[in-house]
Amino acid sequence: MYSAVAYEFHKIDVNSGTIANATLAENGVKQMMQTFGMNDIDNYKLSVDYDDDDISEVTIGNRSVTYNGQTKELIFVVVRGTNGSIEEWSSNFDVGAKTPEYYDRDNPYWTNPNNHKGFDVTANRIYNRIMEYIDDYITTTDDSVIFITGHSRGAAIANILGAKYEDIPGYESFTYTFATPNTTTQAGSYKTIFNIINIADFVPYAPPTSWEFGRYGITRGISIRSEYEDSNPFTNKEGTFEWLTGNDYNSDRFGFQQTLDALSGIANTRDDLYRYTCLDHGDGSDDRITILNRGLSFTSRESAINKIPKRAQRFVIIERDDSGSSWDFTVCQTPAYFLQIIAETMAATIGKYRFVMELNIADKYENAKKQLIDSTLGGLEHPHWPEAYYLIAWNNFQPLR
Question: Where are the beta strands (DSSP E) in 144-214?
Fold first, then answer.
């Protein structure tokens, strides 16, 4: 419930346990924490102190809990998932390379190069805030328990935070994440991190395992389509997606794997995301990253170049033909460029028309582009909804009978 209500556009009735789309005031998480007796509630937006893309929002509260004669201080950390902004979408796709020559690692908050860069930087910034909170409000950590949760991007950040707290002596922590993306190429063994996934949800499969990515902790999955979809959506059988949301469940049952394979195929490793393999700027192993654009005039050429989003321009080399005989230009696009174009599309900072028609994507990425377009039409949305994960928790992983 906490991981879902962290989004401003979701509402959960804590009395009946139901969830529905609704407009929710910004203090929704605070209200829920107050309902469950939390004190010293602190909501913190990283955008207040940082002006780059690696930002998020976290709400922290605490309360004393006595059980079987033992009293402990509960510290609850709720990390919000992607808020729809280009900053957070760009960070989602900012994987980072392990080899410094392919990717600048000057960011002091990227402390573990095995981790996804965008997630790691954001997690470390939130970690600092949590430690400040503990210094301000918690007398001793000897009898304290930290619970961490989040959905989607929030789950990825929570996953990294959970690993940090399990590694720190003297802290007892439990992390519950939902729709968790892959976060690291060196997962290790963690016993206090529990990742819940709908196996038809695309997000937990990215970045792909073919790039050696996994996640910290224990992962458990179930199929909503197999276990919680009402074969007759008009009956609203209790425990089904249709009963909970009022929507007929739509999942990309046919194109899911093709889309995942196509995305995996744009690079062999995370380092390859940032390598130029073209004849002019790389080793010439794959010149399909180079695309020639025909220009009719100086103005038309510059207009076309200006349509390439700033974040994507970091990962291309643009060369203009200034010979006087044409206004052509070439663009050599690393796979990281294509990922940032996806981020811009997801954030709606570029329209679908520009993604599909106006931005010329290099031949190497055309199959992935096509699959993403097809999957969007085929149903990537419902399997990832917070409601979908609340449904899994509500059913406690028990198949309907």
Answer: 144-151, 172-178, 193-198
